[in-house]
Each structure stands twice: as structure tokens, then as C-alpha cells.
């Protein structure tokens, strides 16, 4: 679908973020810069006026070829808190199954003078394709493409981890569940390794872990308690039944019996371990309600931090247009 | 040949701030600006604000403003890569605010700072304090209390380093940075 590697495409000639398509190829410094910038935006909810005028007069278009109310809403809110104007397009996947149709859609929306596209698509590489073909004055943010990448979700997870644990380097992190179908897990693994954590583990049944798992720089476990033993962070993933072609699981009850996180099982992790979930959560399948609502769960904080991280990424990507205008920072 | 000139050292700057504190104290008294709260603009303004708050014996923590998200030149220079969160722990509504910056030049920073302050609340008044006032105003911004107005060439910039020790240096021509 695309020709130029994402990491080259998403940086401009000054090494600044032009598009945000994948964590792959981005430097540790850039990821830390995203987290630092998000830190400032995270302080905004404490103020009577929660908006800043940074992107006033800019138009941001949410191009959602795949439904996702929550992700779209957080992007929309992030854009509005930056004072941008937002247009939402929910486009049926069936109407854009061919590249040419996608390009036609792109050209039409480009004619509306948008400065940024936030793209969610069921097909891997869609955001990359749009970034390659859109005007140089438009930045593209990947809001999830197929099984490939969901970089802003990964960065909000990194932000949550840093908020609770500080330094990444001594941390041991376990990602549990349906890694095979998870673009979030792929992005998380790349981000965690780039930020230099001590160990990344993936835990799940063989049918839900990618065959090339070890090449991702992770340790593989098939037993939950063994996999989360002494970890600092447990990231539970959603079972993505809609992405499974066949019966990869006996049934959900059986899955919960083997891989569902309960208070009892969580005792294997460090006493101060935090529990995360990118949502939406299937209670009683991936996680027991006692854990989901318990003191170690940071699931709702992830949602709040997601807005700050998306504001950071949007404002940094928009900076590339300053470079185009001939300014310098 | 160096393009930087040391303009003022730590002790001299502290003396300057001591003098500013006295002028500020008198002004607050004359204008009956009770219960003032101090806000410094990141980074140099925050250093000066801390020292002034100490001398005025203000009990409340000094507020910190990072105006990066309020700049009017984002379209030219983008977002500052080292933004720090603004932090104001007191209720701004109805308060007499002392706004402190290190160098008052074009006036655009003060405009941005005032815009941000009003997003925190509606103060009763704002008194503007600057360690250095220089020429080159682009907006009608007038300081209430200043430390010094050094004569600077059009292309020269003056920069406060710190916080301990504080020093003021003049950057000539090609060393100037926005």
C-alpha cells in the first residue's frame, strides 16, 4: 500500500514530527519530548478555562473509516482544547476498500482546507498511504490502522507508566492477552523498548501471540502467573473477537479461567504493580471487576492522560508547518 | 572573539532586586493593593519573582507561568520543546497580581502571560515588574517597576542566566536567539 518507510515519512528535514504514524524508528528523545509536552497539557484540567489558544484558526479533520467513539472523542476533545476547529467524518469501510477510492476521499476532504487528518482505518498502512499522498501542508496522525499501529494509545500508556513509576529503565512490563490482533500491543512493545525498560513480556495462549514474537524483543510466556511474576506493570489487552478469523479460543469462560486477571493472580506481580487496559474492557473475560475497580487499576487515568498526549502530538506535528513557513525554533 | 559580554554579576543583580522590592512595596502601599500574589514568567521571571516574594515576605507560593501555548508566533516557530506546566496554586479571582518577567522587550510575552492569567481567573489588578526594560516594544505594554534600562544596540539581546548564581549577559548580533 505504501512505499516510503513510516519513520522517514513522519519526520521532516529538521528531525521534527511531521506525521505521527508509528512508534517504529522514532528516537527515545522524541518520545520523551512527547511525554514532556503532554505533561504541560495534563495540568490544564485544573484550571477554570481548560483550553489553550495554540491551534486557534486551524482545522483538524477526524477521518474515521472504522468506528471508535471513544478514540474519536478524545481526539476531538484534544483538538478543541487546543482551540482548533474539528470536522468529523465517519466513512464506511466498504466505500473505501480500494486505494483509489481512498485517494478520492482524501482529495475531497483536502479541498476543505484541513491542516491535519486524524485517521482510523481497518487496513494496516492506511494512515501511511494518506500521509504519502496528502498535501505537504497537512499532518497525519494515525488513530489506529488494522493490526499495525496505534501510536497515540501507546504513548498515553507510556505517559501513565511514567506518572506512576518515574524512570522506565528498571521496569519489567507484562502485556497480557490477544497480542496477535493488537495494534496497541505492537506499538507498546516498540515504545517500551525505545524508552529502555528492563524487560518486556508478552503473556497469552499460543494462538493469540504472534509467531515472530521474540523478534520484537520480548520474552514470551504462556502461563499468566509466571508471566506477571515480579512485574511493575501489567497491561491487559482486549480480546478482539471481531478480528479473529476462526476459533482461536475454546470459549471466553475458558479464557478467563486461564488468562483473566484476578486479585489472587495479581499477587504474583510486585506489590506496587499497576494494572492497565487500553479499553474497552470486557469485565469477567480479561479482568475481574475487583481488579478493574481496585486500587492498582489506572484504567481511567489512561483515558484522561490520552487527551493530554494527543494534544502534545497534534501541537508537535503542527510545528512542521512552521518549518515549512520558513520559521525556526 | 566572543559574541557575549558579561553585563552584571550575581551580587549586583541581588542589589538591583533589593531596590525593586522597595519600589514595589511603596507602590503596593500607595495604591492600596492589599494581599498581593506573585507570578513569575518561566524561567528568568520565576527566579526574580521568588526573590521578590521573599523580600516582600509573601507567604503564598509564587505562581509560575509558561506562556508557550499562548505565544502569537506558533505559526512561525512552533511549540517550545521544553514547556513546563504553568502552576498557580492560589485563587486568582479578585487578587492583586504582581507579574514578573526578567526582560521586557517586544511586549508580546506579557500579552501572552496576561491572556493565560485570565484563563486562570479574573484578577483585581496586575502590576508588571521587569528586571530589565529595553527598547523594541511592539505592543503598548508599560512596566510599573523596573530594575534597569540598559542602552542596547538594536540587534543585541540581554539574557538572564541562573538561578544560582544569577548573571546578565549581552548577546551580540549572530548570537541572538529568539
Structure write-up:
The complex is a heterodimer of chains A (329) and B (178). Chain A is an alpha/beta fold. Chain A has twelve helices and nine strands. The longest helix of chain A is centred in the last third of the chain and has 26 residues, at 299-324. The two termini of chain A are 34 Å apart. Chain B is an alpha/beta fold and 178 residues long. Chain B has helices spanning 10-30, 44-55, 74-77, 108-120, and strands spanning 4-8, 36-41, 63-65, 96-104, 125-133, 145-148, 157-161, 167-171. In chain B, helix 1 (10-30) packs across helix 2 (44-55). The two termini of chain B are 22 Å apart. The mean pLDDT of chain B is 91. Chain A binds chain B through residues 16, 33, 36-37, 39-40, 42-43, 47-49, 51-55, 315-316, 318-323, 325, 327-329, and chain B through 66, 68-70, 73-87, 115, 118-121, 178.
What key phrases describe this protein's structure?
heterodimer, A: 329 residues, alpha/beta, four-stranded parallel β-sheet, 12 helices, 38% helix, B: 178 residues, three-stranded antiparallel β-sheet
Strand order of the largest sheet of chain B: 3-2-4-5-6
DSSP helical segment count of chain B: 4
Unreliable residue stretches of chain B: none
Taking all Cα atoms into account, the compactness measure Rg of chain B is 16 Å
What fraction of the residues of chain B are assigned to beta strands by DSSP? Answer: 25-35%
**What is the structural class of chain B?**
alpha/beta
Question: pLDDT average of chain B, as an integer?
Answer: 91
Multimerization state: heterodimer
Q: Can you count the helices of chain A?
A: 12
Measured by residues with Cβ under 8 Å of the partner chain's Cβ, the largest interface is: A-B, 28 and 25 residues
Number of strands of chain A: 9
Low-pLDDT ranges of chain A: none
Q: How would you sum up the major sheet of chain B?
A: 5 strands, parallel
Amino acid at each position: 500500500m505504501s512505499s516510503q518507510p513510516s519513520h522517514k515519512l513522519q519526520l521532516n528535514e529538521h528531525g521534527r514530527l511531521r506525521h505521527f504514524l508509528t512508534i517504529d524508528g522514532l528516537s527515545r528523545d522524541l518520545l520523551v519530548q512527547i511525554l514532556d509536552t503532554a505533561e504541560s497539557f495534563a495540568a490544564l484540567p485544573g484550571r477554570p478555562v481548560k483550553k489553550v489558544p495554540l491551534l486557534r484558526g486551524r482545522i483538524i479533520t477526524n477521518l474515521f473509516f472504522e468506528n471508535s467513539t471513544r478514540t474519536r472523542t478524545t481526539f476531538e476533545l484534544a483538538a478543541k482544547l487546543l482551540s482548533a476547529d474539528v470536522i468529523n467524518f465517519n466513512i464506511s469501510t466498504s466505500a473505501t476498500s480500494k486505494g483509489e477510492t481512498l485517494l478520492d476521499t482524501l482529495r475531497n476532504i483536502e479541498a476543505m482546507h484541513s491542516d491535519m487528518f486524524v485517521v482510523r482505518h481497518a487496513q494496516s498502512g492506511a494512515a501511511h498511504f494518506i500521509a504519502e499522498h496528502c498535501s505537504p501542508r497537512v499532518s497525519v496522525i494515525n488513530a489506529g490502522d488494522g493490526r499495525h499501529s496505534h501510536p497515540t494509545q501507546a504513548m498515553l500508556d507510556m505517559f501513565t507508566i511514567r506518572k506512576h513509576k518515574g524512570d522506565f529503565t528498571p521496569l519489567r512490563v507484562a502485556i497480557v492477552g490477544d497480542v496477535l490482533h493488537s495494534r496497541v500491543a505492537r506499538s507498546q512493545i516498540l515504545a517500551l523498548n525505545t524508552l529502555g525498560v528492563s524487560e518486556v513480556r508478552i503473556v497469552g495462549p499460543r494462538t493469540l501471540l504472534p509467531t515472530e514474537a521474540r523478534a520484537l524483543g520480548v520474552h514470551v510466556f504462556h502461563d499468566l502467573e509466571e508471566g506477571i511474576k515480579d512485574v511493575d506493570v501489567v497491561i491487559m489487552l482486549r480480546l478482539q473477537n471481531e478480528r479473529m478469523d476462526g476459533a482461536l479460543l475454546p470459549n471466553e469462560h475458558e479464557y478467563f479461567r486461564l488468562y483473566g486477571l484476578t486479585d489472587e493472580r495479581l499477587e504474583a506481580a510486585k506489590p506496587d504493580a499497576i494494572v492497565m487496559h487500553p479499553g474497552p474492557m470486557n469485565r469477567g473475560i480479561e479482568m475481574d471487576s475487583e481488579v478493574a475497580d481496585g486500587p492498582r487499576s489506572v484504567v481511567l487515568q489512561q483515558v484522561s492522560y490520552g487527551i493530554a498526549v494527543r494534544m502534545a502530538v497534534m501541537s508537535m506535528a503542527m510545528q512542521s508547518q512552521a518549518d515549512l513557513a520558513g520559521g525556526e525554533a | 572573539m566572543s559574541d557575549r559580554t558579561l553585563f552584571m554579576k550575581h551580587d549586583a543583580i541581588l542589589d538591583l532586586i533589593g531596590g525593586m522590592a522597595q519600589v514595589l512595596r511603596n507602590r503596593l502601599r500607595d495604591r492600596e493593593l492589599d494581599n498581593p500574589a506573585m507570578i513569575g514568567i518561566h524561567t528568568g521571571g520565576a527566579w526574580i519573582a521568588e526573590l521578590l516574594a521573599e523580600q516582600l515576605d509573601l507567604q503564598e507560593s509564587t505562581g509560575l507561568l509558561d506562556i508557550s501555548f499562548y505565544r502569537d508566533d506558533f505559526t512561525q516557530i512552533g511549540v517550545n520543546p521544553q514547556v513546563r506546566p504553568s502552576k498557580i496554586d492560589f485563587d486568582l479571582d479578585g487578587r492583586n497580581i504582581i507579574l514578573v518577567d526578567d526582560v521586557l522587550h517586544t511586549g508580546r510575552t506579557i500579552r501572552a502571560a496576561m491572556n493565560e492569567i485570565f484563563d486562570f481567573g479574573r484578577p483585581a489588578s496586575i502590576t508588571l515588574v521587569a528586571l530589565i526594560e529595553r527598547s523594541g516594544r511592539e505592543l503598548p505594554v508599560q512596566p510599573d517597576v523596573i530594575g534597569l534600562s540598559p542602552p542596547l544596540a538594536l540587534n543585541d539581546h540581554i539574557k538572564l542566566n541562573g538561578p544560582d548564581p544569577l548573571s546578565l549577559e549581552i548577546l551580540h548580533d549572530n548570537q541572538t536567539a529568539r
